[in-house]
Amino acid sequence: MNLIGQQIGSYIVERELGSGGTGAVYACRNVLIDREVAVKVLHDENARDPDQVARFFQEAKAAAEIGHPNIIVIIDYGTIATPTGPRTYLMMESLGGESLDKRMRRGGMTLDDIAHVLAQITSALVACHSKGVIHRDLKPSNIYLCHRSFDPLFVKVLDFGTAKLAAPVPGMHRTQYGVVIGTPAYMSPEQCDGKGAIDHRSDIYSLGVMLYEMLTGTLPYGGDLGEILLGHLTKTPDRPSQRNPGVPFEWESLCMRMMEKAREARFQSMAEVAHALDDLRGHASAYAAFRSDRERAGHSGHTLVAAGIDAGDSASRMTIHADLPPPVTPPAFEPTPLPVRPVEHAVDPGEACASLVKHPRHAAFARSLMIRAPGQWLPVGELARASDVALPGVVMIDLVVSWLPHPTDPNAAVVVFLSPSTMWRMITIGVRVRY
Q: Which domain holds residue 404?
């Protein structure tokens, strides 16, 4: 298939940019406004596969719905006529720069570079997960580093073709038991297991493998396909400092936590990864305490599950539960509006909002809120999903929340809830979470 010279809408195909397993990408230009875009078109054999076409649509839908500056912008989607039959296409913004895998091959990434890239990826994935989208194929070739005048390492997350959406695409078969989706070198243990029990914590593991590669220049597991899968499932990787003695302990701790075999021992959300990235030393201290307690519990037959890390530099701030079975895998994210959890009695909206900010069981909500810039309005339902917190009876589906530093108390935050449709509002004071 050669589309050079063909017209797609108002654009003319100028050259091929690359070709992969499922399709080819072309550079196209609108000659009237001199604008260049990238267009992905399925290969002939894939264009005849209804599942591949459905996944192609899923890629367009997933990326377009998230709407985050660090996620590729989808411009158009449709079908064009070619000499070999109709072809589905996906039109995206044109990017100048290089993929992360090419950047790593050149070498020379500093810890500041890695922190900058990782912070942007986590921000994009917080947005993905809050929309119920799990990427499932995070790898360096799907991270593009754009040359922007204000930032030479501006991240764009690409390729949502294997993403898992809360609402399945009509006509596409669900992933079957035993079907493995992803790129083996970066897949989570649960992906390698092929049982379909994938949630947002799988992306956390894959991002941990990418961090491992950025820190060491190597992948944690090598060999043939079977050896790689077995490594993810059963083997503890070498510590990054064993591969590269220059890796600081704080970075090693972050990487190893992300790559924990058990989902319950990893970070429980991308927001938590971002918090730890902002306080590497505090996280390293807390994680070391958790690992020490886990080793002691291993000799006594107890089971430890890391439920999260609060702000601060004390190792005692990590929450650890003993003798508890692993938590049930949370259900897939629901699209907006978020159904309210049934309650046996009416809950005052003000009481419910105050509980989200002040009650210890909702601590993840406050952490997710205060990682965002002060003064930014955020939908309460989406923020609750991102932090995996059940809404305690809030019934206004348009409720938004924002926070500001307290004018006199540096350890407090002013949290404002607002319903734009009813103009109901509530202001409460909570502990300011710092990272």
A: 349-431
Same domain, residue pair 78 and 199: no
Cα–Cα distance, 26 to 217 (Å, whole number): 31
Q: What angle do CA 140, 146, 151 make, to 5 degrees?
A: 120
Catalytic residue from among 137, 279, 310, 388: 137
Q: What is the tens place of the pLDDT at every residue in 33-87? A: 889 999 988 777 777 777 777 777 776 777 777 888 999 888 888 888 877 778 8
Distance CA 43, CA 22 (A): 6
pTM of the predicted structure, to 2 decimals: 0.65
Count the domains in the chain.
Answer: 4
Which neighbouring-strand residues pair with 256? none
Instruction: Please check whether residue 120 is in contact with residue 36, taking contact to mean a CB–CB distance below 8 angstroms.
Output: no
Whole-angstrom CA distances from 323 to 246, 263, 303, 327, 414 are 38, 17, 5, 12, 37
Q: What CATH number is attached to the domain comprising 60? A: 3.30.200.20
> Is residue 137 among the annotated active site residues?
yes
Do 220 and 241 lie in a common domain? yes
Detail the DSSP E strand segments found in 112-206: 133-134, 143-148, 151-157, 164-165
Coil, strand, or helix at residue 91?
strand
Task: Clarify whether residues 63 and 163 are in a common domain.
Answer: no
> Which of these three, 261, 278, 295, is where a domain ends?
278
Residues 101 and 89 in one domain: no
Show the 3-state SS of 183-209: CHHHCCHHHHHCCCCCCCHHHHHHHHH
